[in-house]
Design brief:
Layout (H helix, E strand, L loop, with lengths): L2 H4 L12 E4 L2 E4 H5 L3 E6 L6 H12 L1 H6 L2 E7 L3 H14 L8 E3 L4 H5 L14 E6 L5 E7 L7 H17 L13 E2 L6 H7 L6 E4 L2 E4 L2
Parallel strand pairs: 3-4, 4-5
Antiparallel strand pairs: 1-2, 3-6, 6-7, 8-10, 9-10
Length: 215
C-alpha cells in the first residue's frame, strides 16, 4: 500500500467510506450518512469508565445534534457482542440508551482508515478521535484527545454549529463564539473591498482587516 493510502484524513479530504458491522446492523457509511452531517468518534474500549460517561452524554444530547442535521456514530475495536452487552449495561447503570450506531471494528480496518490508532499510546486501542464530516462527506474538523481525558460534548456541538454558521453566512467565528454572538466578516481581498466596508455602519470595526457583525 502506498504512503498516500496510509495517510490519515485531513481537513478538506473526503472521509473514507467503509462497510462494517454495527449495533444497527451492517452499514455502509456513505449510504447511512445520506445528506446529514456526521460526528464520527472513537473510544478506546468498551466497559471503561471515561468512555461510559462520554457515550451516554452523546446519547443524552443526540437530539441537539439531530436538530442541527447531524448524526452520531461511535467506533472502537471491540466486537459487536461487546458493544451490545455494554449498551445494555449503560442503560441499566446510567439510565441512558445509546441510540446511535457503534461500529464493531475488531479488524481495525476503519480505525486505520481514520488514523485512530496511535501506536505510541496503544497498538490495540483507539484514541479519542472526533471527526466532523459534512453532507458532501468532506472532513471539516478533527480533534484528538488522549485516553485519560474525556471530551467536552458542549464543544463538539459548538464546533458543529460554528461550521454550519460559517457556511451559511460566508463568515468566520471568533474565539469562544457561541450562537447569538457576532461573527467575523471575511478580510478584504483588495483596496476596493477596504473602501467598501467603510460604508457598512452595522459593522463593529476594529481595523480594516477585523470587523464583526450580528447575524
Amino acid at each position: 500500500m502506498n504512503e498516500s493510502a496510509n495517510r490519515m484524513p485531513r481537513i478538506g479530504d473526503a472521509a473514507p467510506d467503509f462497510t462494517a458491522q454495527t449495533t444497527h446492523g451492517e452499514l455502509t457509511f456513505s449510504d447511512w450518512q445520506k445528506k446529514n452531517w456526521v460526528i464520527l468518534f472513537s473510544h478506546p474500549a468498551d466497559f471503561t469508565p471515561v468512555c461510559s460517561t462520554e457515550l451516554t452524554e452523546f446519547a443524552r444530547r443526540s437530539g441537539e445534534f439531530r436538530a442541527r442535521g447531524a448524526e452520531l456514530m461511535g467506533i472502537s475495536i471491540d466486537s459487536i457482542h461487546s458493544h451490545l452487552a455494554w449498551r445494555e449495561n449503560l442503560k441499566q447503570i446510567l439510565d441512558t440508551e445509546i441510540d446511535y450506531p457503534l461500529v464493531a471494528d475488531i479488524d481495525m480496518k476503519v480505525s486505520k482508515l481514520y488514523g485512530m490508532l496511535h501506536e505510541n499510546t496503544s497498538a490495540t486501542a483507539t484514541v479519542r478521535a472526533v471527526f466532523v464530516i459534512d453532507p458532501k462527506r468532506t472532513v471539516r474538523a478533527l480533534v484528538y484527545y488522549p485516553m485519560n481525558v474525556g471530551r467536552n460534548v458542549d464543544e463538539v456541538l459548538r464546533l458543529l454549529t460554528a461550521l454550519q454558521t460559517a457556511d451559511q453566512y460566508a463568515c468566520a467565528t471568533p474565539v469562544n463564539w457561541k450562537p447569538g454572538d457576532k461573527v467575523i466578516v471575511p478580510p478584504p481581498k483588495n483596496v476596493n473591498d477596504v473602501k467598501e466596508r467603510e460604508s457598512h455602519k452595522e459593522y463593529e470595526r476594529y481595523d480594516f482587516y477585523l470587523n464583526k457583525k450580528s447575524l
